[in-house]
Amino acid sequence: MDIEYYLRSLFDLPAKREIRGESTRFIIGSRGELKRVTTFSGEKPVLESFINQIKSSDVVWDIGANIGTYSLFAGPFAEQVVAFEPHLANINRLQENANLTESDIDIRSIALSKEEGTAYLDVSEEYAGAGGGSVSVEGSYETSLVKGDDILPRPDIVKIDVEGMSSVV
């Protein structure tokens, strides 16, 4: 994987991946991103099942979107995709990936919660593709907490991957 990462970084080559006959591309800027994209973080069967559930009229919410793996693959099958991600490096890469693939994803730079307010995102690593962050009273940077019940459009399908915080989403 180090050789692939080195070559992709050296020549600025996006990685192309395919699921259910649809391909998408990802910008690779870190080893974490390369691993996430090449292995689907061990979730390829889950991602395929998720995609198979989507109908063309569905609104899909990707909560904890990271760099957009689920959002980008959902796009061709859904009416609308809304991606929620509070980690700044991931938001930036998600936007770059959406631009690269000309995907129309509604990206929201917030954390969903059962309470409105402000919290701090404590991230273990600052690069795009990093996971494992947590919301706390102090941390790397401030993020808005928004109640999902207050957000439109309402979802038909929801993917939640928020590192152990799903009970407060």
UniProtKB/TrEMBL annotation:
Residues 62-165 form the Methyltransferase FkbM domain. It is an enzyme of class 2 (transferase). The keyword Cell membrane does not apply. GO terms for molecular function: methyltransferase activity. Keywords: Methyltransferase, Transferase. Pfam families: Methyltransf_21 (PF05050). Its EC number is 2.1.1.-. This is FkbM family methyltransferase. The keyword Cell division does not apply. Coiled coil: none annotated. GO terms for biological process: methylation.
